[in-house]
Input
Amino acid sequence: MSEQKMQGPDQQGYVGFANLPNQVHRKSVKKGFEFTLMVAGESGLGKSTLVNSLFLTDLYPERVVPSAVEKIEQTVKIDASTVEIEERGVKLRLTVVDTPGYGDAINCHDCYRPIVEYIDDQFERYLHDESGLNRRHIVDNRVHSCFYFISASGHGLKPLDIEFMKALHNKVNIVPVIAKADTLTRGEVNLLKKKILREIAQNHIQIYHLPDADDDEDEDFKEQTRLLKESIPFAIVGSTQMIEVKGKSVRGRLYPWGVVEVENPEHCDFLKLRTMLITHMQDLQEVTHDLHYENFRAQRLLHSKDSGKRMEENIKDNTLSALQAKDEQIRRMQEMVERMQAQMKAQTSPASSGKSTHQV
Output
């Protein structure tokens, strides 16, 4: 029986460390990817249209828009839709979280609370699953990114926009988006972008910042990263309608004066937004796990530790109170016994005195 020899690096079929990235790639493709995107903003800003445009799907085929009367007392709802997307053998489990009713009611005070609670609930569920016995098949429903839609008709950020981003910037990666940018000229878009960024900085709001390109990256990727950073907040136009332009079918919006092409970089930042989302999807997930989730986890552990200390102090206080009550009870019993003994002595003393006098 001939002894089987190890294959060397120069032999055909050699598998070494250089093959590890391929193994990781095959495993990742087989497992698939998960991503949760939240879209928030007032009704009528094109959130659903943008999502359908980004992923070439129809997530809301049966959506009913409420009337103005229904919106008066409408509360914010959380609508999560999950769809399986496959492209060239790569599967993506995409969950889109919509927030119908946000900013629509007359009283919008704390209307973002249900959104904050939803994000915290997903963190709590992941923490519970991660702490369980079976951690092999944990479903990650944590919100990895939030597209926040800003109205192009306003003069910068509204008070509600500021309050929303302040409440969520430590919990999720916020990407500001200027909705329906085709209502503005190119100069107006640039001025609005500068004002929004200035107001974000003045209110100390932390939005998602794209990571810098590494030195070993090619020049095209570095240039792409630079352009994406300069485009924030993204001024977008969404549409699922196909229009014939110069013999070519494109997605866009038809106006009397011409066509706004959704995927034309000269018309809007739609392509840049999609490029940012696809090329930095892994970074969005890592920032969610390493920063936002770890902050939540640390706060929960600290709260549990403080609760444990308080419980221990309460137990000590209760034990001390019980001991003190027991000591008080024993003291009263001793006093009672002493009184009974004194009474018995008092009763026996006259009898003893009378007997002694009779004998004398």
